[in-house]
From TrEMBL:
The keyword Heme does not apply. Belongs to the short-chain dehydrogenases/reductases (SDR) family. InterPro entries: NAD(P)-bd_dom_sf, Sc_DH/Rdtase_CS, SDR_fam. The keyword Signal does not apply. It comes from the Bacteria. GO terms for molecular function: oxidoreductase activity. Keywords: Oxidoreductase. This is SDR family oxidoreductase.
């Protein structure tokens, strides 16, 4: 018996990176997994991988910037598998890495939609299904970028700070339904990491060196177990928490100021 035997989970952005790693780990632990992903090819490929692992899986094309699409994915999960126990809000739509003064309203709006709004929509849609199951688990994704005020991510930082507020508000209010709501702040070798590593020689080594553990995280081996913990009964007495899963990077933090930006500009 796996830790998630008989459970039904929906993971947004499960077509790659951390989302895929979590989906694979959940399948190994006995969960039926809904891969809520906008990219059809990657979403269907992950479903095939989960089935090869012996799991049950369903791909639902999901655009997290659309309320209709997010709600439809939640309802499809409940309809196909008979309920919903676990919701993992992982997906987001990245915006251009530019300074705050160059961020546009449209960038902020799109980032908020794919993070705060997407999580809000999914959580509200999941609530009645979880209540019918006698409780549930919600895992949201926070970021160390909020803590460090990461440069070029002003819209992302704003949105992720909102995720923390949403997580704690839902934890406080939904405990009466036996629903726990927690967040993780992960760093891992996802698609963005590999792109930066390919474009910048030495990036991977420098990134690993920043962490007390001396290595960068693997989505399935390092990040997924923490999500599994929060999605299982092992964390039954924990709610409203935000956990760093980053090899200790949050201890020293990091300086993200671009090299071409002067200390003072007038």
């Amino acid at each position: 018996m796996g830790l998630l035997e008989g459970k039904i989970a929906l993971i947004t952005g499960a077509g790659g990176g951390i989302g895929k790693g979590v989906a694979r780990r959940f399948a190994r632990e006995g969960a039926a997994v809904v891969v809520a992903e906008i990219d059809v090819a990657s979403g269907e490929q992950v479903v095939c991988e989960l089935e090869e692992l012996g799991g049950r899986a369903l791909f639902v094309r999901t655009d997290v910037t659309s309320k209709e699409s997010v709600v439809a994915a939640v309802n499809a999960a409940a309809s196909h598998f008979g309920g919903l126990d676990i919701l993992v809000n992982n997906a987001f739509v990245p915006s251009p890495n530019v300074r705050m003064e160059d961020k546009t309203d449209e960038m902020l709006e799109r980032t908020l939609k794919s993070t705060v709004w997407a999580s809000w929509w999914a959580m509200q849609a999941a609530l009645p299904h979880m209540k019918l199951r006698g409780g549930g688990k919600v895992v949201n994704f926070y970021s160390i970028d909020v803590d460090t005020g990461a440069w070029l991510h002003a819209d992302y930082n704003t949105a992720k700070a909102g995720i923390l507020g949403l997580t704690r508000s839902a934890a406080a209010e939904w405990g009466r339904f036996n629903i726990t709501v927690n967040a993780i702040a992960p760093t891992a070798m996802g698609a963005t990491f590999h792109k930066l590593a390919a474009e910048n020689p030495g990036f991977a080594e420098a990134s690993a060196a920043l962490r007390p553990l001396g290595r960068s995280g693997d989505p399935e081996a390092d990040i997924a177990p923490a999500v599994l913990f929060l999605a299982s009964e092992l964390s039954c007495y924990m709610t409203g928490e935000a956990i760093h899963v980053d090899g200790g990077l949050h201890l020293p933090g990091y300086n993200s100021r671009p090299r071409d930006v002067p200390v003072r500009e007038y």
